[in-house]
UniProtKB/TrEMBL annotation:
Keywords linked to the UniProt accession: Signal
Family annotation (PANTHER family): SLR1406 PROTEIN
SUPFAM superfamilies, per database record: GlcG-like
Species, as recorded: Marinobacter salinisoli
Protein name (database record): Heme-binding protein
Pfam families: HbpS-like (PF03928)
Origin superkingdom: Bacteria
UniProt cross-references to InterPro entries, sorted A to Z: GlcG_carb_metab_protein, PduO/GlcC-like, PduO/GlcC-like_sf
Transmembrane segments: none
UniProt signal peptide: 1-23
Length: 171
C-alpha cells in the first residue's frame, strides 16, 4: 500500500512540476530575451570618453561594464595611473547597479554599515549608466582626472556618442 501511495505522490509531483504545468500556472515566460551591448558599442563609449578627456589635457582609465557588472571594455591612457583601472571599474559597476550617475549617489549612503561600504561600490563622480529604451544595459566609469566632475563629463560624452543609436536599435 505504501508503494502505491508513494508512486501516486511522485507521479502527481512530476506532472505538477513539468514545464507545461509551470507555464500554465504562471504568465511568466520560461525563457527571456536579454538586451546586451555589442563589443563595438562598448568600445565606442570607452574611446569617446578617452578622447573627451584628452581634449581637456587629462589621461584617464575607462571601464565599460555589461548589464551583469562584468568588464566588457577597459582602456587606460598611457599616463593614467594604474589605480585608475580599479576605480573606473567600481564607478561603472556602481552606475550600472544603481541606474544613476555616481555623482548623484555621493551623499546618499552615509551610515557606517550602508551599502556604500560594499567592495565593488564607489560613490564618487565619474560613473554613468548606459541605457537603451529605458533599460539599463551597462555602465561606464572614468577615473584619473583631477576632479570627479571631469571624469563624469568624459563618461557622459562616451554615453552620448552611442545614445541615439541605442534608442533606435530594434529588439
Amino acid at each position: 500500500m505504501k508503494n502505491k501511495a508513494l508512486k501516486v505522490i511522485l507521479l502527481t509531483a512530476s506532472v505538477a512540476l513539468s514545464p507545461g504545468a509551470i507555464a500554465q500556472e504562471s504568465d511568466q515566460p520560461l525563457l527571456v530575451e536579454i538586451r546586451r551591448m555589442s563589443m563595438d558599442v562598448a568600445l565606442a563609449i570607452a574611446k569617446t570618453a578617452i578622447d573627451h578627456c584628452r581634449e581637456q589635457g587629462v589621461q584617464v582609465a575607462v571601464t565599460v561594464v555589461d548589464r551583469g557588472g562584468h568588464p566588457q571594455v577597459v582602456l587606460r591612457d598611457v599616463l593614467a595611473m594604474d589605480l585608475a583601472l580599479d576605480v573606473s571599474f567600481r564607478k561603472a559597476y556602481t552606475a550600472m547597479t544603481f541606474t544613476s550617475a555616481t555623482s548623484a549617489l555621493e551623499d546618499r549612503f552615509t551610515g557606517p554599515f550602508s551599502v556604500g561600504k560594499l567592495d565593488k561600490v564607489l560613490l564618487s563622480a565619474g560613473g554613468m549608466p548606459v541605457q537603451a529604451s529605458g533599460e539599463t544595459i551597462g555602465g561606464v566609469g572614468v577615473s584619473g582626472a583631477p576632479s570627479g566632475q571631469i571624469d563624469e563629463s568624459c563618461a557622459q560624452a562616451g554615453v552620448a556618442a552611442v545614445e541615439m543609436d541605442l534608442e533606435m536599435a530594434p529588439f
